[in-house]
Amino acid sequence: MDEFKRQVQDLDVSMGIGETSRVTGATATQIRYWEKKGIVHPIRHGEGQNKRYSYRDIVTISFVKSMIDQGYTLAKAEQDAATHFTFAEALQMIVKERVHLVAQTAHTLTLNFGPLDNDPGYDVVAEVGDQVTLKRVPHQAN
């Protein structure tokens, strides 16, 4: 499970503009325009290689396209996307930095977030099933 956790944390998903257009429904022209506006930031993995759009860019493009399709302006879509990603990045940071152990049974996912900063003798554990339960349990060494 530790290897899987590391692989998920380090996952680098990216697509070219054609595939990004197909997946998001935005035209290549729209994507290039949004790039010029600084809404998305494609990367190149090497000199002379095509631009690649990260998972974050793909989600941003989908979000902006959806907002525009609903009648919002590009400025409003960009603003809402930035707010949305501030929240998403915080969740991603929690998962990357604090999830120490993941266990799953038939009906429950258990996430151990490691020791409490102000009481390292105890861990924070979330059990997710029909409901979410947070518990303070004695520290479990990994």
From TrEMBL:
Chain ranges passing through the membrane: none
A Pfam family assignment: MerR_1
Domain annotation HTH merR-type: ranges: 17-83
Protein name per the record: MerR family transcriptional regulator
Keyword annotations of the record: DNA-binding, Repressor, Transcription, Transcription regulation
SUPFAM superfamilies named among the record's database cross-references: Putative DNA-binding domain
Source species: Lacticaseibacillus hegangensis
Domain of life of the organism encoding this protein: Bacteria
InterPro entries membership: DNA-bd_dom_put_sf, MerR-type_HTH_dom, MerR_fam
SMART domains: HTH_MERR (SM00422)
Family matches, as PANTHER family: MERR-FAMILY TRANSCRIPTIONAL REGULATOR, REDOX-CYCLING DRUG-SENSING TRANSCRIPTIONAL ACTIVATOR SOXR
